[in-house]
Amino acid sequence: MLKKHNYIGKTYEEAVNTATIDLQELQVNLLIKKKEEKKTLLSKKVSIEVIEKRDIKEYLKNLIKSLLKDMGFKAEIEITINNDVPTYRLYSNNDSLLIGKDGKNLKALTIVINQMLIKEIGTNYHFFIDVNDYQEKNDRNIENLARRLAKEVKNTKIEVKMDSMNSYQRRLVHNALNNNKYVYTESTGEEPNRAVIIKPKKD
Predict the structure, then answer these.
(1) Contact by Cβ (8 Å): 170, 187
(2) pLDDT value at residue 196
(3) Residue 12 φ/ψ, nearest 5 degrees
(4) Distance (Å, rounded) from C-alpha 135 to C-alpha 82?
């Protein structure tokens, strides 16, 4: 079970301050959820639930390992942190099956883990699951394709519509070309067929 701490204060800020002192942690390292606010004529009380992010990271690791074991996979899990977002890199006895065609099994695993975590902590928590660098390589491939197409658009002055992508993949394209002097990007269409168009900038 994930350890949860409860604190009460006259204001939300006071309750948070009590939590940071008691847990000896900076607020940025805590996941804080306002539980209840009680007001009377003479007083006001705010209660919060606090979970340490390091506990969530460890809980997630154990959750992934337990689920994989139930599915018949043996896996080593390596955790890296980037901008406070953990990536759980899996090295299993059957990486290709765990990834699935076009990453469908990996995506399904991430969705299941995310739903289990939300049920436990009551809110969204940003994390990534990768299998033997598959997602990282896939991300780089998308960014490299975007840059190659941007050069084509720059030279021909003709816009290019990329294949349909999910929101995460579209964001990779937008970010990769965000500071490009010659092209700009726009998303078009409706989910799940939303795509990115790379357009030439006017001289």
Answers:
(1) yes
(2) 95
(3) -60, -45
(4) 15
Q: Kindly calculate the radius of gyration of the chain based on its CA atoms and give it in whole angstroms.
A: 22
- Does the pLDDT at position 49 exceed 80? yes
Edge-first strand order for the sheet with 30-39 is 5-9, 44-52, 30-39
* Torsions phi, psi for 6 (to 5 deg): -115, 135
Q: 128, 86 in Cβ contact below 8 A?
A: yes
Q: Using CA atoms, how far apart are residues 54 and 60, in angstroms rounded to an integer?
A: 10
- Token look-up 């726009």 returns 186
Q: Max Cα separation, the chain?
A: 72
Does residue 86 have a cis bond before it (omega within 30 degrees)?
Answer: no
Q: Specify the residue for token string 């349909």.
A: 164
Q: Is 94 left (phi over 0), alpha (psi -120 to 50) or beta?
A: beta
d(CA 149, CA 137): 18
Contact between 46 and 9 under an 8 Å Cβ cutoff? The reply is: yes
* Residues 183/189/195/196 CA torsion (nearest 10 deg): 10
Name every residue whose Cβ is closer than 8 Å to that of residue 97 and which is 6 or more positions away in sequence.
105
Segment 133-146, tens digit of pLDDT = 898 898 999 999 99
Q: What's the predicted TM-score (pTM) here?
A: 0.73
Ranges of H-type helices in the chain: 12-23, 53-70, 95-99, 104-121, 134-156, 167-176
